[in-house]
C-alpha cells in the first residue's frame, strides 16, 4: 500500500539535512529540538529506512537520506518560489491602458514614472494604438482617447483641453517673415504640414481666419502628430497641431508660434473612457484620480507657457468648424 508522505515530517527532515544539526533546524522552524527529533524518528519508521547516521552528536545522511534530501530540497525550493510569486501578485496591481500613439509617447510616458514611484507595486501595460478598445472582447481597463467625446455606452470624462496653433522652427518663421511681414501673408510662402487625424485641420483654420490656402508644394500628410511635429521642428514647414503634444519643444524654443497675432484655439480633446462597470475598479479609480491631477497641472503649465510666448487663448465657438 502506498504511503502518503507526511509533509510536516519532510519539512523537518529537509531543514535538518540542510543545516546539519537538529538544534539549528529547530531554531529555523521555531519549534523545540525534541519535536524535530520526534518527527525524524516517525519519518524513518514510516519509510522503514535510516536517513541519518549519528556519530559524536553529528548527523550525516545515509544513501537513502541523500536521495530523499535531493528530492525534498528541490520540492521545497519550488514551493517557496511559488509562494513568493503568489504573495507578489497578491500585493501588486495590474492595469492595462490603451492610448493614442502620439499622446502616449509625448504626454503620458514622461509622467508615468511619477505614478510608478508613488505606486511601486503596480504593473502597468500601455497599448499605444489608434484603435479604440472593444471592452467586450479585450482585457483593457481604461482607454485614453483623443476625440470629441460622448462615445455611446461608455463612461467618458475630459481630462485635458487641447491648445491648437500654427508652429514652426524659429529659422523657418524668420525666413517667412523676411518674405512677408504681414501675419496672414506669412502663410503665402509656407509649406503646410498636415496632421490628418487631428480635430482641427488646416482648411478649417484658414477658413476661420479668412486666409487663402497657399499654393502648396507636394502636400506633407502624416497620421501621427509626433511625426508632423518632428518635421516642423526640423524646419520643413508649418504644422497646425497640439501645444499639448509640442509642449517640450515650445519650452525649449525648438518650435515657436508662427505668429502671436493668431489666437490659440482651446477645445476638449483628451478623454478617459471605459464601461460604467469599470469605474469602481480600484485600479481604474486610482489611476483616473492621478490622470485628473496631471491634467490640471498640465493645464496650468500650458496656459502659463503660451502666455509667456505672447499668445492669446480663446475657446472654440459653437459654430466653428472644429470637432466635426
UniProtKB/TrEMBL annotation:
- SUPFAM superfamilies from the entry? Periplasmic binding protein-like II (SSF53850), Winged helix' DNA-binding domain (SSF46785)
Respond yes or no to whether keyword DNA-binding is given for this record.
yes
Looking up InterPro entries in the UniProt record yields: LysR-type_TF_proteobact-type, LysR_HTH_N, LysR_subst-bd, WH-like_DNA-bd_sf, WH_DNA-bd_sf
GO MF, one annotated term: DNA-binding transcription factor activity
This protein's superkingdom?
Answer: Bacteria
Among Pfam families, the record links this protein to: HTH_1 (PF00126), LysR_substrate (PF03466)
Q: Which family does it belong to?
A: Belongs to the LysR transcriptional regulatory family.
Q: What does this protein do?
A: Transcriptional regulator of the ttuABCDE tartrate utilization operon.
Q: What is this protein called?
A: HTH-type transcriptional regulator TtuA
Whose protein is this, by species? Rhizobium subbaraonis
Amino acid at each position: 500500500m502506498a504511503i502518503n508522505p507526511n509533509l510536516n515530517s519532510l519539512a523537518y527532515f529537509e531543514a535538518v539535512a540542510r543545516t546539519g544539526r537538529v538544534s539549528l533546524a529547530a531554531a529555523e522552524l521555531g519549534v523545540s529540538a525534541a519535536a524535530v527529533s520526534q518527527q525524524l524518528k516517525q519519518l524513518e519508521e514510516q519509510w522503514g529506512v535510516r536517513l541519518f547516521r549519528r556519530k559524536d552528536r553529528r548527523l550525516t545522511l545515509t544513501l537513502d537520506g541523500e536521495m530523499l534530501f535531493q528530492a525534498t530540497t528541490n520540492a521545497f525550493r519550488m514551493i517557496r518560489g511559488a509562494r513568493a510569486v503568489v504573495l507578489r501578485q497578491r500585493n501588486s496591481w495590474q492595469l492595462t491602458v490603451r492610448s493614442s500613439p502620439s499622446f502616449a509617447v509625448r504626454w503620458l510616458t514622461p509622467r508615468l514614472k511619477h505614478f510608478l514611484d508613488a505606486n511601486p507595486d503596480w504593473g502597468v501595460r500601455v497599448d499605444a494604438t489608434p484603435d479604440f478598445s472593444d471592452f467586450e472582447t479585450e482585457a483593457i481597463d481604461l482607454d485614453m482617447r483623443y476625440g470629441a467625446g460622448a462615445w455611446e455606452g461608455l463612461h467618458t470624462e475630459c481630462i485635458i483641453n487641447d491648445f491648437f496653433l500654427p508652429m514652426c522652427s524659429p529659422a523657418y518663421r524668420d525666413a517667412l517673415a523676411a518674405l512677408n511681414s504681414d501675419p496672414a501673408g506669412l502663410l503665402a510662402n509656407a509649406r503646410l504640414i498636415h496632421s490628418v487625424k487631428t480635430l482641427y485641420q488646416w482648411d478649417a483654420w484658414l477658413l476661420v481666419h479668412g486666409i487663402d490656402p497657399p499654393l502648396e508644394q507636394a502636400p506633407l500628410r502624416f497620421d501621427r502628430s509626433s511625426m508632423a511635429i518632428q518635421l516642423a521642428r526640423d524646419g520643413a514647414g508649418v504644422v497646425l497641431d497640439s501645444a499639448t503634444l509640442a509642449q517640450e519643444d515650445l519650452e525649449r524654443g525648438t518650435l515657436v508660434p508662427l505668429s502671436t497675432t493668431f489666437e490659440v484655439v482651446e477645445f476638449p480633446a483628451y478623454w478617459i473612457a471605459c464601461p460604467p462597470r469599470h469605474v469602481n475598479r480600484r485600479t481604474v479609480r486610482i489611476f483616473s484620480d492621478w490622470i485628473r491631477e496631471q491634467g490640471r497641472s498640465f493645464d496650468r503649465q500650458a496656459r502659463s507657457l503660451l502666455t509667456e510666448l505672447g499668445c492669446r487663448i480663446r475657446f472654440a465657438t459653437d459654430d466653428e468648424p472644429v470637432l466635426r
